[in-house]
Amino acid sequence: MKLEAQTDLRRRLEQLEGDGLMRRRRVVQGARGAWLNVDGRRVLSFCSNDYLGLASHPDLVAAAQRSLAESGVGAGASALISGHDAQHERLERRLAEHVGAPRALCFSTGYMANLGIVAAMAGRGDTVFSDALNHASLVDAARLSRAEVEVYPHADLETLEARLARCASAVKLVASDTVFSMDGDLAPVRGLVALCERHDAWLLLDDAHGFGVLGHGGRGALPHFGVRSPRVIYMATLGKAAGVFGAFAAGEADVVEWLIQRARSYVFTTASPPALAAALLESVRLIERDEWRRARLRDHVARLRAGLRGLPWTLAPSETPIQPLIVGDNRIAVELMDALLEQGLWVPAIRPPTVPAGTARLRISLSAAHEAEDVDRLVEALRALAARRSPRAALAR
Ligand SMILES: *Cc1c(COP(=O)(O)O)cnc(C)c1O
Hints:
With 397 residues, the chain is of the alpha/beta class. The chain has two domains: 24-52 and 291-396, Aspartate Aminotransferase, domain 1 (Alpha-Beta Complex), CATH 3.90.1150; 58-289, Aspartate Aminotransferase, domain 2 (3-Layer(aba) Sandwich), CATH 3.40.640. The protein is 45% helix and 17% strand. It is built from 16 helices and 15 strands. The longest helix is centred in the C-terminal third of the chain and has 18 residues, at 372-389. It starts with a helix and ends with a helix. Bound molecules: pyridoxal-5'-phosphate.
């Protein structure tokens, strides 16, 4: 006899299917680049966070191979036991120098970094203020911390200030994405820093999509906005523009020391393979050196936005490589994704709960790995699909 819980689970899966919310993975084979081999077909990808086209760069691959030959694959233990390798140490120094912070600490993933940072900095009786559109890892981190959680309306400094002003907690921590991952818009970083100064709060900035992309030399959101403050705990991931895997926190030496002592997702996990650190050292070098990758990315963004003007869907106002085309209905988003994939163009449909209900979208990600013609192909395909759905909108072109 089946458990009642099993029947219930089956019903919930069917509900997802019925609501157009079922997610399916596709199998990718071979190196990551603009073109991917998916389920045996070559498709042009607009769904990667490899913004600078570094994920398969031969210099990164060679650095990882050298390290693998010398150091093997596994770190063997958590960092505080015996897993902290010379390559991890070198990478942390290099990252601190790169972003202009006194000290940096590497985590296995961005998700784990956020869990560890927030729960180490805030606890019972403290308050975490979180932007309504923050990444799921910051949402989960706030919950895990057991602090009071105050979700403020997206980028709304006025509401945030009012809530900070009446908050009596000893520790206040404001957490925000710098580049919002599903919308591509930027947080009001200067305003956030000013508020945290005024109200004696920490500011955790998650620069997952800004690191490598924003700022001179790809140094991220802080130089982009021209801010520097001992209250800022900077966090960025290394699996996106950096093209590898992992994440780091950077800030004042005492903050980083505290994270080493108390961030549970750092303390209680195996250190990452040293070869990843070796690849990342190479990646940071290329991020700093290759300004052309960012220039090319900016050209692609401008090209796409100009090309998609006048479509019946809303291209969200974004200057970053994340370009969301908001179509609203879950099923339309999936139909468009499927129609594009038929033509060999892979653009993911993003649906609730990743984004608010009624804002399903195609999330177009651009990369320096793309050619201008690649962007043109996507523009033409979307214009043709729009014309098929609403001939009048196409005439307005
Ligand atoms: C991707 C992402 C993360 C998680 O990073 P991983 O290294 O993939 O775990 C955290 N925050 C934001 C804003 C992200 O986009």
